[in-house]
Write a structure and sequence with these properties.
heterodimer; A: mainly alpha; 6 helices; B: alpha/beta; Cobalt-precorrin-4 Transmethylase, domain 1; five-stranded parallel sheet; 8 helices; 17% strand
């Protein structure tokens, strides 16, 4: 995993002074964090997909829920059971 | 047992109360949407365990959710103080968290959910939309299959438009392109085809802005939608006003 990039993003998220520094001097801040050329490019692009690619995670994962489908399945099963009873 | 939300942005949208619960837990589980938040959370509590490996391509998400609930409840049953963190709000479009709390309480274990910042909260802030005039919210598949009665004079929010009709876990950015055509057709029956809608994606990274794309309903089938996209459909009609009710309430 891209440890330096990960640490850099965590620092910007948790320390408003670091974020301000980055907005004022992005090149200097990224130099100090030791980011590679491709990581710097991804950060400067401000593109989430470019950042995910550098972080080794091309897409946002597992962001869905199917509680309604589960409920519906249960309903169908109940109906089937009722039909069998008849 | 405590279930908390980490919000959407990395490490910066969690409440102090939730953070304290994570740090104090005997056992800590997490399920979030990016590797940076995973790293941050793993550093907060040495017992941290990632639930992501319960997902697998092609695996039924129902099986995944049941597995997650079982994993969470196993240490709860041994008497440990368990904290579970989900991204966003842990109770919004999250089956496993509600189910784990229900089962824990049924087994006599005190269980509580603490709120987090959801995609919808980010949307209200980034789009400058105030839901005071009403807001209808549905999961996109449910919206199409269950056909709820909706009102075009009231805003409509559809979650998970990139995963319509898909019950397995997939690794692609958009899980069902063809369903967007169906969604576009259904929306066109309620709204003018040229009605402008917003495709919204809340930002995870501190250097990124939210993704806000405004398109017509007719262009939805070819639009840049991912599983992280939330659809915001503004009202196409003025809200009604009942003079009689207003008078009854002493408003005129």
């Amino acid at each position: 995993m891209a440890k330096r990039l990960t640490d850099f993003l965590i620092k910007l998220s948790t320390d408003s002074h670091s974020l301000e520094q980055f907005e004022t001097d992005p090149a200097g801040t990224m130099d100090a964090a030791g980011l590679s050329a491709t990581e710097r490019k991804a950060v400067l692009s401000r593109n989430p997909n470019a950042l995910r690619k550098e972080l080794g995670q091309p897409h946002v994962s597992h962001m869905t829920d199917e509680k309604k489908k589960t409920a519906k399945k249960k309903k169908k099963t109940a109906k089937k059971k009722a039909a069998k009873k008849k | 047992m405590t279930v908390v939300g980490t919000g959407y942005r990395i490490a910066s949208q969690i409440t102090p109360e939730s953070l304290a619960r994570i740090k104090a837990a005997d056992k800590f589980f997490y399920l979030v949407a990016d590797v940076v938040t995973e790293t941050w959370l793993a550093g907060l509590n040495p017992s941290a365990e990632n639930l992501t490996d319960s997902y697998a391509p092609g695996k039924s998400r129902t099986d995944t959710y049941n597995e997650i609930v079982d994993r969470i409840l196993a240490p709860v049953r041994t008497g440990l103080h368990v904290c579970v963190a989900f991204y966003g709000h842990p109770g919004v479009f999250a089956h496993s968290t509600h189910e784990a709390i229900r089962r824990a309480r049924k087994e006599g274990v005190p269980a509580r959910m603490l709120p987090g910042i959801s995609a919808q909260d980010c949307l209200f802030a980034d789009l400058g939309f105030d839901p005071s005039d009403g807001c209808q919210i549905f999961e996109a598949t449910g919206f199409l299959v269950q056909k709820p009665k909706t009102d075009p004079s009231c805003a409509l929010i559809l979650y998970q438009a990139g995963a319509i009709g898909v019950s397995t876990f997939e690794t692609s950015a958009l899980w069902n392109r063809s369903a967007l055509q169906v969604l576009s057709e259904v929306l066109s029956k309620k709204y003018p085809p040229k009605h402008r809608i917003t495709l919204y994606t809340a930002p995870h990274f501190p250097v990124c802005d939210p993704i806000i794309l405004r398109i017509s309903i007719a262009r939805l089938p070819k639009a840049d939608v991912t599983i992280a996209t939330t659809l915001f459909i503004p009202p196409s009609k003025e809200p009604r006003w009942d003079d009689r009710m207003a008078r009854r309430l002493g408003m005129s």
